[in-house]
């Protein structure tokens, strides 16, 4: 058969179905007829979506539609095991459930807001210590406390798009007998392949690029090591947040267009980046590798593309509310990775739980905007941004003038 390409594997995800259906069925059953021990003749093998235990029994344990997602995503990552969860946060919780009381986790300092919420609330209660590391790329094994069980990273980070050296983080983790977990949501296996760089767990919020249409929450954890996989599998069953059959179908449906969507998003993001870099009202543009030469080198080494999330800082003479109100195609909302372009203000939206000090440490100013680029025609997006800059320039003063003249 030969090795199929990534794009083909995205499409060819339908498991064998006895009806010949070319898209996977949504199996809603909560429970399945159990084989009768010692019955003669022995029960026929399960016809479709066989999971690793070979059959289906109860939906929290396994489900044919969910198994199809897990098989498809494992194939894209060339991983042995994948487990699908109700949300990205459920997937992250499952990975953290493998850390025991008295152990420590090191995390890169700008992690996803929900992950920060988890560790700051649940690690202390579970007697797990943690440290936020500003520069994982400079971390040395001798700096890592002996009780460290896991290093947890994202690359690029959100919303400043800093690059974390995955191979380096894996090497340091393994030198001290710890595991490396990476949230690969922003890049996907299409652009970045953490297992090939030494990662032990790869995590996704499939809500974003994998599903890609802003209509489903989903998460995945992948692992190659049998023991680690077993622990994640236990969390999937016992913590009780597996992906539902309908949501499994939505992820499978989205997955088929992953490559065409991401190709278009990358192209659009590149054009918008060039526009922003040249715009006089933009004081900084952040994208993977933009921070310094070292990060640019790491990014080039470990990733096939910048992705389609970028952030930028707008000049003081741009009135932010007027800028946002002038947008029509571009939605003002959190989330990313979908077909529609979304703009957000991290300081008041995705990172609103941080205080001023934490925001400053994470490099999130009040003038920073994050853009998650979609698949629209780039010319329309550029025209809209251009117009928004025009109408919002000096708008604060104009508003003041108006209110003065009225009084
Ligand atoms: C959205 C997101 C999550 C959480 O995913 P949910 O599906 O919303 O639970 C985790 N990590 C990253 C990087 C994300 O963008």
From TrEMBL:
Any Gene Ontology biological process: transsulfuration
Keywords: Pyridoxal phosphate
Alphabetized InterPro entries for the sequence: Cys/Met-Metab_PyrdxlP-dep_enz, Cys_met_metab_PP, PyrdxlP-dep_Trfase, PyrdxlP-dep_Trfase_major, PyrdxlP-dep_Trfase_small
Superkingdom of origin: Bacteria
GO-annotated cellular components: cytoplasm
Substrates-to-products reaction catalysed: L-homocysteine + H2O = 2-oxobutanoate + hydrogen sulfide + NH4(+) + H(+); L-methionine + H2O = methanethiol + 2-oxobutanoate + NH4(+)
Cofactor: pyridoxal 5'-phosphate
One example GO MF annotation: methionine gamma-lyase activity
Sites bearing N6-(pyridoxal phosphate)lysine, chain numbering: 208
Pfam families reported for this sequence: Cys_Met_Meta_PP
Keyword Chaperone: no
EC number in record: 4.4.1.2
Family of the protein in this entry: Belongs to the trans-sulfuration enzymes family.
Protein name listed in UniProt: homocysteine desulfhydrase
Record organism: Boudabousia tangfeifanii
Lineage: Bacteria, Bacillati, Actinomycetota, Actinomycetes, Actinomycetales
